[in-house]
Write a structure and sequence with these properties.
Blueprint lengths: L4 H15 L14 H14 L4 E5 L5 H6 L6 E6 L2 H10 L7 E5 L12 E7 L7 H11 E12 L4 H9 L13 H10 E9 L2 H4 L11 H13 L11 E8 L1
Parallel strand pairs: 1-2, 1-4, 2-3, 4-5
Antiparallel strand pairs: 5-7, 6-7
Helix pairs in contact: 5-7
């Protein structure tokens, strides 16, 4: 597996992260984008049946564990972290006939051209060189194959300040997405659609517990989506759902 210096740093960071027994402190904030995950899984549920699917940066396999229930033909999961793949294999050992888990470099995979119907990922593109990984995803997707990713945005100044104050909470080379990253995606894919998440739901996250059972969360989601219709407010979103078709 060919690795750059940045790839090696990412590998070491995630091996160390997954070797820990406790989760990251930042996990407490993710409830603010629960509606993004819901939309992500809804899309997969509608599009992976009988499909060859790639979990791009699968980690320890939490998404595969859900997507396997949507009846794909097969799911392949790749991750640069050996520790993550080892844990994923243990977690998903009951699904071995429909799952293939591999240690691989997302920027330069071992797959043949036109292999997958769909490639998905949660918070992985911002750990990679955008142009390289987008070229690679386009290569391994079949014509008219699709991608779907949830990624953090790098445009909210308050969130960026928090990132600057907590450098040890993330890898050195990760880069939440900005305009040039979306330009790289649009250069290779048709009908790129973006949906934004996590403004008021993040601001008021201390005031609700479970998003699923919270009336406040549902109200905040509605206000967020109204605000995100205005381009200016998209700068304050935390995350985006990216859906696109291969050229």
């Amino acid at each position: 597996m060919e690795l750059s210096e940045k790839n090696i740093r990412e590998k070491e960071f995630h091996n160390k992260l997954q070797a820990k027994s406790e989760g990251r402190f930042e996990n407490i904030f993710y409830k603010a984008i629960a509606n993004a995950w819901e939309d992500f899984y809804d899309y997969l549920n509608l599009n992976v049946k009988n499909a060859e699917v790639l979990d791009y940066g699968c980690g320890i396999g939490p998404v595969i564990e859900k997507v396997i229930n949507f009846n794909p033909k097969k799911i392949t999961g790749i991750d640069i972290s050996e520790v993550s793949i080892k844990k994923a294999k243990e977690k998903l050992k009951n699904y071995e006939s429909k799952i293939n888990l591999l240690v691989d470099n997302c920027e330069k995979t071992k797959f043949n051209d036109n292999k997958f119907d769909l490639v998905y990922g949660l918070g992985i593109l911002h750990h990679l060189q955008t142009a390289e990984c987008i070229n690679e995803i386009s290569r391994i997707l079949k014509p008219n194959g699709s991608l779907v990713f949830i990624e953090p945005l790098g445009t909210n100044p308050v969130i960026n300040l928090y990132r600057w104050l907590t450098p040890k909470s993330r890898s050195k080379d990760e880069h939440p997405l900005v305009a040039k990253d979306f330009n790289a995606i649009k250069s290779k894919f048709n009908s790129v659609k973006l949906r934004y998440y996590g403004f008021l739901t993040l601001v008021f996250f201390p005031f609700y517990k479970s998003p699923k059972n919270s009336r406040l969360f549902k109200i905040l989601v509605k206000f967020d989506q109204l605000l995100f219709k205005i381009k200016f407010f998209r700068l304050f979103a935390w995350s985006t759902l990216i859906v696109a078709k291969n050229n």
